[in-house]
Amino acid sequence: MTTQHQVNQQQYQDKSQAYLNSQVHAQGVEFQKMQQLIQSHQFQKVLDLGCGGGHVTYQVAALVDEIVAYDLTPSMVELVSTQAKQRGFENVIAQQGAAEQLPFVDQYFDCVITRYSAHHWQSAAQAMHEIYRVLTQDGKVIIVDILGNSNPAIDSFFQTIEMIRDPSHVRNYSLEEWMHFAEYTGFKVETVAKQHLGLDFQSWTERMQTPEYAITTIRDLQTKASEQVQRYYQIKADGSFSSDVAYIVLSK
User: Can you point out the beta strands (E) in 18-123?
Assistant: First the structure.
């Protein structure tokens, strides 16, 4: 039996370089927000949860004593370890593992950051409990991810094309779902903001090495989508589209 974690690892094992070079992942207004929050609270121990190509780690490492770049996929962890050394960061610890079972002692981190990773978690509820456990009493959590939608038609369309593109996709959660996770776990919600993300169709599919038959299926779904869906995602003739992104800050 193939578990969801194995699906994730299989999907991403040979894509670390693509994620390192991805402009979508390397850029974002959220980086400045993260840096300001870390500096204003003088946080020194940070967890980059689901580090992928390591962009959060590279943006934050110079500001803290220690940052753990943590990811389910071994090749991502190896890449970040190598890149951190090349960039002169001696305070980066690269470690492999799942979000649902963090191998850290209670209240170890001042700040946990997860960016474009949560939609791959097999159990968001369990991962949130683990984040709560490893966070200090005065710590903060920063969550950045593409938003699902409370409108079923709009939501189903995006979840479907994401899974066709990337079988390791689990779910992009709506703001309502994120608020439920936060409050159920015991977090206080400090900040909720929306950002807008444009996705170039070609790079979006090339990054995941999406097979041609799957690309054809996605394009077919895009052309047959309702006017409401096409308008919401601003679907262009070449398949490129836009989506809302959540920037959420939580505290204990």
Answer: 45-49, 66-71, 92-96, 109-115
